Every structure is written in C-alpha cells, then in structure tokens.
Here is the input.
Amino acid sequence: MSRVKGNIAEARAVAFLEDHGFTILDRNIYSRFGEIDIIAKKDRVVHFIEVKGGEGEPVYRITPAKLSKIIKTATIYMQKRRIDADFCLSAVIVTDKIELLENITV
Here is the structure.
C-alpha cells in the first residue's frame, strides 16, 4: 500500500477509534525495532494498534514478526514514558468497512 493510501487508512482508523471512545495518545511511533501506527487508550487500557488496509484480506499481513516488533517498541514506549497500565495489541482493518480486532496475539 502506498504511503498516501496508508495515511488515508490511518486517518479513517483514528476517526473510527475516537467515535468508539478511544483517546489517541500518539501516532507513528518508531524505535530501532519497528513502528506502531496508533497508540490509544480506552477504559484504562493502552492499545498499541497496527493499521492495515487495502485489497483482499489485509489482516493476513499482520505477521508474527510484525507483532514481535510492535511488542518491543511498545515496551520501550511504556518504559520511556513510565506508563504502568494494562495494555494490549490491537489492529484496525480498513477496507470498505472498518473493523477493530482487540488483543491480537502471535
């Protein structure tokens, strides 16, 4: 997916999350391990969110290797900001519709 399409998918994901009660804490956080698209909070739980969009079944592009990178980056993020809260990995799948997948695992 091109960067322009990726930005559009992320903007749609942010709007969706806000409409569903999430507070956006950060976007496009990088570490030497990888990137986290969106960091949001809802009900005292921090969600590290991967956004996938495009044709076909974009959810299948969330690989165990990608999740491992997100976990490492999330750990650094929480340590640097001294966040002591429950957290989970989530995904927002953006196609014709938008779907939130909470607490995804490897």
Q: What stands out?
A: The helical segments are 3-19, 64-80.
